[in-house]
């Protein structure tokens, strides 16, 4: 009994230390973003708890036209891209889960092939260029429209739905489309919520494809703009950047960087609690068959 308490105490203390080390970078980013510029400069860039809080960095970032425009682009990618990806993934997974589909096995092999082999960056770029999608936001959606791994996971979920439901619907005169939209999708909300969150985070964090396909700074997503802020503390398309702002209002570049990271991260942090209930259930559904 005594040994169990000692083990629990040691285990709890170790987990607390690991948790504190994990959360400290997030805490430091949050604190620095709200630190008064004069205090940050006086303390030479190391602040654990500011004596004076300030919103100057957030006011500057949120008032910058390029930042607001980049946020709109990322929001478009996360909403439209996620909706289209879910529709394509669910439709393909449903088709693969139906044994009456004649070309089921060849399709499964094709999806599996995409998981094992990738054509590489250059063929991807040539394809996007030949489709005239360079400097087009659809170039950030169409190449990432679906994932073979997600298709197989959602197929496993559809396999767990009793076939008797479809047979009863067919007796009532439902065709495959009505069965999919009226029966299968409503039953699949937990799985859709889980994969929707995965897709939304991926589209919101779009960076590499934007570097390859988007040359127009007015169409940059938020992550590209953040990268520019982190590199030279300047917004790409506005006339005044962080370096100039430092001279005018004495705002350190580091507080601007931290504020930009917080603003870019908050939307996803707000979305997760709304989907947490369905997310936890959706991840487990289909993984174990009764």
UniProtKB/TrEMBL annotation:
Keywords on record: Cell membrane, Membrane, Transmembrane, Transmembrane helix, Transport
Entry GO terms, CC: plasma membrane
GO biological process, one term: transmembrane transport
Subcellular compartments: Cell membrane
CDD domains, sorted: TM_PBP2
Highest taxon listed in the record's lineage: Bacteria
Chief location of this protein within or outside the cell: membrane
Topology class, membrane: Multi-pass membrane protein
Keyword Membrane in record: yes
Domain ABC transmembrane type-1: 71-275
Aminoacyl-tRNA synthetase as UniProt keyword: no
Pfam families: BPD_transp_1
Similarity comment text for this entry: Belongs to the binding-protein-dependent transport system permease family.
Protein name per its UniProtKB record: Carbohydrate ABC transporter permease
Organism name: Paenibacillus roseus
